[in-house]
Amino acid sequence: MESQIKPLAQSLSKFGLTDYESMVYLTLIRNGPSGIKDIEAKSNVPRTKIYPVLKNLEKRKLVSIMPGKPIKAKGHAPDSSLLSPIRSMEQDLKTMKRTIQELRKLHETSSVSDQFEKKEYWVTRKQDDAIKSITETINNSSEELLLFLNHEGLEIVSLYCYELLNHAALNEVPVKIMINANKSDLAILRRFTELITIKYVPFAPQVNMLFSDGKELLIFKRMFLLDNRSSTISVEHYSGGSVCELMKNSLTGIEWTSGKDFGTLLPVIENSWMPEDAIINPKENQASPLLYLYLMDLITTNFGQKRDAAFADLGKKTLESMMKGPTNYVQTTLANSLSVLSSLYLIYEGVQAKYSYDDPVNLITCELSGGLTLAYKTAADRGFPIPPSVWGFFFLGLLDVFGFDCKVIDSVFNSSNNYWLIQYRLTSRQSPTPDKTDLTESALLPKAP
Asked: How confident is the model at residue 325 (pLDDT cuts 50, 70, 90)?
């Protein structure tokens, strides 16, 4: 390994990696997907040690071992697994910070003669005091920060609290933002660290709320003064009491019942190709997964070994039917179209979906989790190549548009985590498929004995 790489390899030992693991990982990061022979040549790790090292790195989600022969591996960007040593070192700092906070609280409740009694409710309409109140609340938070914002509130938070919120998240204070995001908000939202959870909600509050540690509630908004030539920020502050408990329960309820993962909906919001109310109230009449499970079972029974060809043909017809409407579901690239497909699963099925396209090796990995009904597990158990949903057939239609056929090379359903992983190998279609399957209604009807 080259001399300039050695300091990096030595540094990785502080994250718990052995010398061999460090050198193999750096080789893959630097050179891209590689086989055992190439890794041996470029890392100076003995060939007999490489595969066990790759398995250890795969467990830490730092590499992926790609199916096929010869074996190849691909390095990933540093994952949260490398953060654990840092977090353990930061834990002492966090404990010290909490100690300071507890000392402050003791001081605030002391009976010193010049100590003012802390108010449970107060209001300020001076902008400097309002900003100071918001920033101090964020700084003093040690358990959780929950923000429910409209577009104006997002601008205020971005202008005065961006660094503080990112710092809190990096110091393991859970930060959650709920917002009815639109395209104009994306530039701001993308600036926040990935450690901050952002949820899309189907409505915008009239005022903005900042909730800290379940004990302090700040309600803030921008106000225009009577002369209509200037504005200020007003803050209402609640500490403890029934108001905080009520708002805590309400905001938690909104997050679980209405909030959708912002990252998954990002392609929809960014491209503005779907009306906003479609995210809130889907107008398509989505059939039950049980109906699609029955349909897939029926196709399998009637077409036997030609099942996959029948699925592909039905996928093509499904996409053609959907494209007759006003919404353009197909993007300019397969990767972007798969991102949109992930959003569609969440909007219409309530299922968290992630489609990852590895272009160099022609692999697509589908990960489904969350609201998977029994029909999904049954489909996995029966070896069906797609989930029991219109979006499963939509996926096959997408592949047809971009000139690919696919074959399932791995399918694993984890019942304890309600998680289904399917991996597809893509092959470019050189010429029209000669085996066309008739998917007419009569072909699907059960045959007479």
From this structure: low
Assessment of whether the complete model's pTM goes beyond 0.85: no
Are 130 and 229 found together in one domain?
Answer: yes
Peptide bond into 289 cis (omega under 30): no
What's the CATH number where 367 sits?
Answer: 3.30.1380
What pLDDT is stored for residue 108 in this prediction?
Answer: 55
Helix (H, G, I), strand (E, B) or coil at 12: helix
Q: Which amino acid is at 204?
A: A
Work out the percent of the chain whose per-residue pLDDT is above 70: 76
Tell me, yes or no, whether 263 lies in a domain: no
Q: What are phi and psi of 114, to 5 degrees?
A: -95, 10
Tell me if 281 is assigned to some domain.
no
* Residue 368: inside a domain: yes
Lowest-confidence range among 79-93, 172-186, 268-282? 268-282
Alpha-carbon radius of gyration of the chain = 27
Domain count, the chain: 3
Q: Evaluate whether 285 touches 321 at the Cβ level (below 8 Å).
A: no
Q: Which domain holds residue 192?
A: 119-258
Residue 94 maps to a domain: no
CA atoms within 13 A on the CB side of 331: 17
